[in-house]
Amino acid sequence: MNISGIITALQSYNKLTYLLNTINTLTHNPSEFSSKKNPFPCPTTFRTALTHYVDICTPPRSNVIKDLAQYATDENEKAFLLKLSSNEGKVRFIEKLLLISSIEL
Fold first, then answer.
1. C-alpha angle 10/26/73, rounded to 5°?
2. What tens-digit pLDDT sequence spans the chain (105 residues)?
3. Helix (H) or strand (E) holding 103
4. Of 21, 25, 41, 103, which one's alpha carbon is 20 to 30 angstroms from that of 54?
């Protein structure tokens, strides 16, 4: 990597570190089934929220995917997320995960 690349990488790292360490109040639009006003103790940092309250190792639950769909700006992506959150979509998602796992083995 050349000096320019190193400088760019360091600048990106500094921006990311700043964003992760900035204190925020993270809010969401609670669904009718949600019992919490905020998904995390607030105020908090993105670093704390991602480190302690977000599980990125398991597939997301159907209700989470459905909630994410409301933020999609592209109608095709929104439709895909809504289908993925359905029972049929859940089965297809698991099938794709199993297919990917078998290819990696």
1. 80
2. 567 666 677 777 677 777 777 777 666 555 655 556 666 677 778 788 778 877 777 777 888 888 888 888 889 988 988 998 898 888 887 887 777 767 655
3. helix 87-104
4. 103
Q: Measured between alpha carbons, how far is 77 from 31 in angstroms, rounded to an integer?
A: 20
